[in-house]
From TrEMBL:
Cofactor binding, note field: Binds 2 [4Fe-4S] clusters. One cluster is coordinated with 3 cysteines and an exchangeable S-adenosyl-L-methionine.
Protein name (Swiss-Prot/TrEMBL): tRNA-2-methylthio-N(6)-dimethylallyladenosine synthase
Annotated SMART domains: Elp3 (SM00729)
Protein's organism: Streptomyces purpureus
Keyword Acetylation: no
Length: 504
């Protein structure tokens, strides 16, 4: 059955809702799922529908320990709604679906479709098959059927976009189950990546984020160790592309040619998110992380020497099995030395199927909690000190949508500085749209944002702002992808990265 045939088979009024949990890769996949459903004739459910849609899709994450409970709790809340609504369908995809497979239908027999990370393109077909056969369809592919970027998409931002450059991961971190669920790394051809970026820019996108679960290992599948730095430099040649970001690199693959490309390519932003996970060499060895504290801090030093105003963020796991107080103090030492702009800190989450889950020396909850609180307090102090250094600087801020929760009451707008810091600024008299760029002077700093209380120095209307205005002039079908975690960066809104998932 063709897409056209399926479109005719589906009532044009049938609505869908996608609920997304986890990493940026899942957010990007959900844009593809939305695109597939809309091409098949579905329309986005109205905002606030809260499950009151004809099709509800869960795009799941398997990294955190409570992922299972969260999914089955949400499925349980939908069960009576489905009973009252004949024809309603529920689909579960993503990493947890890839892991649990038939278990989902056994625990929640009212689920209609279960699909994995490798066959998201099959969702419309599986929904139609489940409707016709009146039984659950469970289809989990063991290898990638189609690169996600070849599928239709419904992007959540008119001015900023994800561009996937690779899928899968070749690392064997003992705390992470993702490689088993996403498979080995597969790289896209550079020409395909650049063609997609050029097409996005032609649509009005001015910022892209290169996405991979180990993004700077790009090229290992192509036999070119410098492929990632070459890709960054090639992005610098695309007219109209104002900002380039990437997430997330692995310290093992962070080479000098990448630092040079970042420093010498004007539209590559002075921002780096590089997961530390632990500052203890002993714990890093147990995690099977192939770098040590000295190597990590050496990369930070080189980046700051080449890009003095770079904002560097990280991920840290507290309470990994066997972590001693001395090990934890090494993490605290590394944080003091690195002076991260911000850090996403996690208490170790035991995941069945990972080597770490079977390790001796599991740390008591109360010990992990106490260490976690000490680390958060230290990082809050450093973040505030680093943000205070921004006071008095004049920055170009790309106006964002949905970043400032209090903007309506404070009469401010919000956006992202080149280094990805969140900036709230006084609303100028001139019309400003998401995607436009304003120039402001920073007057105040808090641990998690900057404030520009004075008048806006300038407003630059952009093609990205034009694209946002054009999109919002059309009738809207409902909310964007709903995220399960706090947001960072752009495209807005984003979930915070989670340890072990797309942030190796």
């Amino acid at each position: 059955m063709t897409i056209s045939d399926r479109s005719q088979a589906v009532d044009v009024q049938r609505t869908y809702e996608v609920r997304t949990y986890g990493c940026q890769m899942n957010v990007h996949d959900s844009e593809r799922l939305s695109g597939l459903l809309e091409e098949a004739g579905y329309v986005r459910a109205p905002q606030g529908s809260d499950g009151d849609a004809d099709v509800v899709v869960f795009n799941t994450c398997a990294v955190r320990e409570n992922a299972d409970n969260k999914l089955y709790g949400n499925l349980g809340r939908l069960a009576p709604m489905k009973t009252r609504r004949p024809g309603m369908q529920i689909a579960v995809g993503g990493c947890l679906a890839q892991k649990d497979r038939d278990t989902i239908v056994k625990k929640a027999p009212w689920v209609d479709v279960v699909f994995g990370t490798h066959n998201i393109g099959k969702l419309p077909v599986l929904l139609e098959r489940a409707r016709i056969q009146e039984e659950a369809q469970v289809e989990i592919a063991e290898s990638l059927e189609a690169f996600p970027s070849t599928l239709p998409t419904r992007r959540e931002s008119a001015y900023a976009a994800w561009v996937s450059i690779s899928v899968g991961c070749n690392n064997t971190c003992t705390f992470c189950i993702v490689p088993a669920l996403r498979g080995k790394e597969e790289d896209r051809r550079p020409g395909d990546i650049l063609a997609e970026i050029e097409a996005l820019v032609a649509e009005g996108v001015s910022e892209i984020t290169l996405l991979g679960q180990n993004v700077n290992a790009y090229g290992s599948d192509l036999g070119d160790r410098e492929a990632f730095s070459k890709l960054l430099r090639a992005c610098g040649q695309i007219e109209g592309l104002e900002r380039v970001r990437f997430t997330s690199p692995h310290p093992r693959d962070f080479t000098d040619d990448v630092i040079a490309a970042m420093a010498e390519t004007p539209n590559v932003m002075p921002q780096l998110h590089m997961p530390l996970q632990s500052g203890s060499d002993t714990v890093l060895r147990a995690m099977r992380r192939s770098y040590r504290q000295e190597r990590f801090l050496g990369i930070i030093e080189k980046v700051r020497a080449a890009i003095p105003h770079a904002a560097i963020s990280t991920d840290i796991i507290v309470g990994f099995p066997g972590e001693t107080e001395e090990d934890f103090e090494q993490t605290m030492h590394t944080v003091r030395e690195a002076r991260f702009a911000n850090a996403f800190t996690f208490q170790y989450s035991k995941r069945p199927g990972t080597p770490a889950a079977e390790m001796d020396g599991q740390i008591p909850k109360e010990v992990v909690q106490a260490r976690y609180e000490r680390l958060v307090a230290l990082q809050e102090e450093i973040s505030w000190e680093e943000n205070k250094k921004q006071v008095g600087r004049t920055l170009e801020v790309m106006v964002a949508e949905g970043e400032g929760r209090k903007d309506g009451t404070t009469h401010r707008l919000s956006g992202r500085a080149p280094d990805n810091r969140l900036v709230h600024f006084t609303k100028p008299e001139a019309e400003v749209r998401p995607g436009d760029v304003v120039t402001v002077e920073i007057t105040y700093a808090a641990p998690h944002h900057l404030l520009a209380e004075g008048p806006t120095t300038s407003v630059r209307r952009t093609r990205a702002g034009d694209a946002w205005e054009k999109r919002n002039a059309a009738p809207q079908q409902g909310p964007g992808v709903m995220l399960g975690l706090p947001k960072i960066g752009v495209p807005a809104p984003l979930p915070a990265v989670t340890n072990g998932c797309a942030v190796d």
